[in-house]
């Protein structure tokens, strides 16, 4: 590589290094999407310029090329990047200021960074606590069957019904925690989170990942694995948080 090419590469490395970093194993897709969205929002790669190669992005994020391509596919479907083939091909930025502005489903209210962060932090506290309490309890046969039925419903749900059935699963976990106060607090918080989720695309890859986590979570709860239930739920919440922060903040 020539001296000028090396210098250009170094400048690109410098401008992206504050944002692109290795993601956690449990939420690689969501965190990678969040970080590349930040690159676009911050204008680190301006409109019309090419993103780093797939190899470089995958290496920086410590994810597989397959996962990276799923991330880029989502960005392309949202009209934020485009893929070009050929000698001078690659993934080019099509993002313009305002492309990721929140679009409420039924009103005109806007959200702030504080709104998003507060809802997500409180949600994680309640969700992790509920998972831990459920795993520590001796759930009876009827309670266990309720959890299995809720999980099965989300697995077979059409996209249009997924969020409602996902909400039912999480509300059931909160109810079975044995704390009515926690369950009531979670119901209000979940309504806030769903309002935020309604402002971003429903991503099939994220839903598949969520289903895998749901199954692992129920296994841990039904086996009485308190530590495992807590960690799976924390990873699950982190994935959702990464998507919401990526699109809305």
UniProtKB/TrEMBL annotation:
Signal peptide: none annotated. InterPro entries: GntR_C (IPR011711), TF_FadR/GntR_C (IPR008920), Tscrpt_reg_HTH_GntR (IPR000524), WH-like_DNA-bd_sf (IPR036388), WH_DNA-bd_sf (IPR036390). SMART domains: FCD, HTH_GNTR. Gene3D superfamilies: GntR ligand-binding domain-like, Winged helix-like DNA-binding domain superfamily/Winged helix DNA-binding domain. Keywords: DNA-binding, Transcription, Transcription regulation. CDD domains: WHTH_GntR. Residues 26-96 form the HTH gntR-type domain. The keyword Transcription regulation applies. SUPFAM superfamilies: GntR ligand-binding domain-like, Winged helix' DNA-binding domain. PROSITE patterns: HTH_GNTR. PANTHER family: GLUCONATE OPERON TRANSCRIPTIONAL REPRESSOR, TRANSCRIPTIONAL REGULATOR, GNTR FAMILY. This is FCD domain-containing protein.
